[in-house]
């Protein structure tokens, strides 16, 4: 079981996520978000991440200039594209930067599953998330879950991660229903938007690992 904790905003939060057992730590580069990270702050925030933990940069329909600046920090192992990027744009980003790319896809109904294969053909990983409501300010990180039965028994040609409204309380059921081997959380381990609750991060990782063991 691999856990990603997203929307971290300080070195202390990154350290706590690593100590809790996260396999991925994510920073959000999206100015409207309460979790937004600036490029200069990201360099410092990720200065001493332990070996073996993947550092993820989350962007939303970012242009090349923004991605150049983020990748230029030489701090990231994986790019998470969380906007309306097309499969062609995913392929372009992957080839321009030579870093693995994870494409986030929001689902709410069976028809939203239809596009997943076209992204699986170009992305290194998929992040299967809740589709944001039409009036949402943020395309992700809304703490909303989708009906996990929609993807029960589904698998794709690349590794995928389950996200959307996960919490220490519900992640076990989500893993059992979907068979996810990787899970991602942000709001569900916060005291308030943009501020992580260190005890909840640890509880989340424990619950995810316990569900994976129970499933084995
Ligand atoms: O977190 C944000 O503010 C954010 C902004 C713009 C796009 C995506 C964003 N977050 C995505 C995530 O943190 C996760 O990858 C995932 O969607 C889980 O979010 P949550 O439902 O809050 O656990």
TrEMBL record:
EC number of the protein: 5.3.1.24
Record-linked SUPFAM superfamilies: Ribulose-phoshate binding barrel
Top-level taxon of the source organism: Bacteria
Keyword entries, A-Z: Amino-acid biosynthesis, Aromatic amino acid biosynthesis, Isomerase, Tryptophan biosynthesis
Listed pathway(s): Amino-acid biosynthesis; L-tryptophan biosynthesis; L-tryptophan from chorismate: step 3/5
Swiss-Prot/TrEMBL catalytic activity: N-(5-phospho-beta-D-ribosyl)anthranilate = 1-(2-carboxyphenylamino)-1-deoxy-D-ribulose 5-phosphate
Domain N-(5'phosphoribosyl) anthranilate isomerase (PRAI): 3-206
Keyword Isomerase on entry: yes
BP GO annotations: L-tryptophan biosynthetic process
UniProt keyword Isomerase present: yes
Family: Belongs to the TrpF family.
Listed name of the protein: N-(5'-phosphoribosyl)anthranilate isomerase
Species of origin: Amaricoccus macauensis
